[in-house]
Amino acid sequence: MPEGFDPEADPVCWIRNGSGLVGWGEAARIETGGADRFLEADERWRRLVANMEVDDEVGLPGTGPVAFTSIAFSDHPGDSTLVVPEVIVGRRGGVRWITTVGDGRPDLRPAPSPTAPGEVRYEDGDFPATRYRRAVAEAVRRMRDGAEVDKVVLAHDLLATTPEPLRTRYLLDNLSLRYPDCWTFAVDGLVGATPELLLRRAGDEVNSRVLAGTAWPRPGSTQRQLVTELVDSAKNRGEHTHAVRSLARELEPFCKELEVPTTPEVLRLRNVLHLASDVAGRLDPTLAENGQAGLLRLSRAVHPTAAVGGSPTGRAIELIDELEEMDRGRYSGPVGWQDADGNGEFGIALRCARLGEDDGGGSRARLFAGCGVVADSDPDTEVAEAAAKLLPVREALEGMR
């Protein structure tokens, strides 16, 4: 068994509809931050795998050495992290495998079900909903007064505390059961279930699922009414168009082919409905072969999209820094996994919480939610939308399955 491996420890995870990767232990860790965090992480990861002796009999994306990755949203000094587990269990398309780092084979056995952490109590975070509403109103005022920004994405946080320790797997189990079509993830204390795929790279193929534009259930509303409201909303359609164009514009230089839908679909989740567009491309073979189109470098080019930053990007980020009175950390940054060949999947870290210990022996979870703000946004509506986006993690904390 790899040294220090504990199958009951909190895992790292990336799963969707029962397929994906789950890892335990820590064979290596890379930490970086700042404006060069993507490039530094890519260079250090490539140096690490270049010195590994790899025996990979499966030969699929996600076999061999894998780094579970969580990158900070902003260029501020931060806690971007790559974790290489000692043991990984993978499943995709009917194929299953186990990857180990080091000598020996792991003693994999069913772990006991994680216990509930007790009554969940909520309190204001660093940037509560009341101040968030004022920030949204100020952003709307500036856009109506001619500010050079078409859209800005503002977020706020909520603090949850539990009397007993909160295990990562408790959240993962509850989220994956209620949101199987989302990508459920856990990397270095950041746990969630995101509906948005920033990028998937498999050889010369690259894909993205862009989400922007939201509706959510309200008393008396039917599913059909919500779909009509979402599709017919000029605000939501415009917001979605900004996000898709942002992604396609930055990804296009890496591709010899790029397919961008002209009309979005509607993604239905338990808590919200989103406008969604699936973008697909084929990478330039020269860039793919020389390492310039690995997943981290592609993500550096497209992050932040208009779905989590705004448009135009530079001015929107300046407005976020000015109006958003908190540090997002790794919320709304890329999260997922990558292998030694630059393949992998990165989602956008949404519908998530950052877990930590509480002084009283229990746990603290910092939840995040944000919304796209445009000139005709209503601050009260944006606050309600953010509350709807907090529901997945709140319900998972409270034991709903």
Automatic annotation (TrEMBL):
Assigned keywords, A-Z: Isomerase
Residue span(s) of domain Chorismate-utilising enzyme C-terminal: 130-389
Assigned EC number: 5.4.4.2
GO molecular function, one term: isochorismate synthase activity
Pfam family, one: Chorismate_bind
Lineage: superkingdom: Bacteria
The keyword Cell inner membrane is annotated on this UniProt entry: no
Enzymatic reactions: chorismate = isochorismate
TM region(s), chain numbering: none
Renumbered residue ranges of the record's region Disordered: 103-124
Family: Belongs to the isochorismate synthase family.
NCBIfam families: isochor_syn
Protein name: isochorismate synthase
Biological source species: Actinopolyspora mortivallis
